[in-house]
Amino acid sequence: MVLNPAFMTNIHQVWLKKKGACPSTGFMALVLSLHICDEVHVFGFGADSDGNWSHYWEQITYKRLRTGRHPGNVEYKMIEELTKHQVLKFYKGW
Predict the structure, then answer these.
(1) Which N-terminal residues, if any, form the signal peptide (predicted)?
(2) Which residues neighbour 88 within 8 Å (Cβ) at sequence distance 6 or greater?
(3) Which residue among 21, 26, 50, 90 has its CA within the 20 to 30 Å range from the CA of 56?
(4) Chain center to CA of 34
């Protein structure tokens, strides 16, 4: 994904309050979608029912809650807050 660095900085500083090293590409795509789409529906973002973060295409044998440089829990809480205020619709994963 190619975005203006100022947009990415805004997401990190304003939306995520400078938590983590940088926002995930998924969260950046979500914020971009909020700016350009009439409706945003989010599917499967966040940890699975066991608390593990991964991409749907990854085959990981030993998963554990880890988001690397990204503030996954902060992003997830922001999505829940946006859902609460009916800014987007959130369909949780399993």
Answers:
(1) none
(2) 30, 34, 39, 40, 41, 42, 79, 82
(3) 21
(4) 13
Amino acid at 63: K
Burial of residue 79 (number of CB atoms within 10 Å: 0-12, 13-18, 19+)? buried
Q: Which two tokens stand for residue 54?
A: 């991964």
DSSP assignment, residue 62? S
DSSP string, 8-58: HHHIIIIISTT-SSS--HHHHHHHHHHHH-S--EEES-S--TTS----TT-
